[in-house]
Amino acid sequence: MGGPVEELIQTALADGDPDGPTRWDAIAALQERGDLETFTAARRLCAADTATERILGIDILGELGRDRPFADKTLPVLRFLAASETEPRVLYSVLIAFGHLRDPRALPSVIELASHPEATVRYGAAYALPNVVGRPADPAGVAALRRLAADHDDDVADWATLGLALTGGEVHDVRGQVLDP
């Protein structure tokens, strides 16, 4: 799927399914472009009135361009949204984008959202943390993963446990005993 940026954006917005193949085909075509026009359009979407438009902008920015040429310009947009957004679905997309960007500068934002009351947001944080803790892993990031590994939501706990295994952090059971991840 190719075409002008605005046409691809409208195609993505027209698909009512957030996981729909038409939406994601349009997003992939936009991400592949990796140009300033696409970055500018996606950044504008991040400031839109509707959550659907903000999510689309974030989803485009998370993997824009093969070598992430706009990562330095994307990170402040995402960090602003992480600090100011209230819609859990938008925060989830921000966290997934942080994970795709793999930039340790996102770590403070991800740690902050790791304690969000909504499980969807915590799940996004569990996904992002192993990708932004840095190498060697930042102790605060590993501590956040440990807290998420004990989360009452099974999906959050499972993803955080995997993240601990990927970062080399220890996993503890409910009695505090170290488990093999």
Automatic annotation (TrEMBL):
UniProt superkingdom: Bacteria
Transmembrane annotation, as ranges: none
InterPro entries referenced in this protein's UniProt entry, alphabetically: ARM-like (IPR011989), ARM-type_fold (IPR016024), PBS_lyase_HEAT (IPR004155)
Protein's name according to its UniProt entry: HEAT repeat domain-containing protein
Species lineage: Bacteria, Bacillati, Actinomycetota, Actinomycetes, Streptosporangiales
